[in-house]
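Can anyone check this?
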Amino acid sequence: MKVVANTRKLQGSGASRRLRRAAKVPGIVYGAPASPTMIEIDHNPLYHALRVEAFHSSILDMEIDGTPEKVLLRDVQWHPYKPQVLHIDFQRVDPARKITMRVPLHFLNQENSPAVKLSAAIVSHVVSEIEVSCLPANLPGFVAVDLSNLTVGHPVHIKDIALPEGVVAVAAGNPVIVTATVKGGGDEEPAAAAPAAAPAAAKKDDKK
């Protein structure tokens, strides 16, 4: 995705307010090899770009005064109640250095899992994104989580996810990603059907 920006000379809260009144967003691009660059971006294209999932987890093509840069979105400051972007931060990308980034999870085949089809379970997505470490060229836009084998009582952990080559999850321990529970509570498989009631006692011998 592409971002068009221009350098800005004036700084401070007053200058930032004037930019916002002119429908522009103040921001900064930092990271080696260059010094931090103060930028301004047209608000409306940026606002709509921020509504796209990939904008938050992909390498972005930025043009600053016509000069191309590879950057990552690092922080966005929103107005507390207006749909307005107040400030935005980007980080330059060094293709030879690993980056750490949060990427969204896309859950697949949930409706075909044994947990849903056989147990009518409630599937809970405990987290919707994970943090990964990789070279910029290997950064995935999202990580797919296949739930086709999900069963009740057997949660999916982060180490159960198949990550793309060159991508490593950054997490303490092995946190749960997805759970499946039976309606009414509990995380056990539904009990097997109760055996048929014992046949009625044998009839007494016919009266003679």
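Reply from J.R.: I decoded it. Residues 188-208 have pLDDT under 50 and may be disordered.
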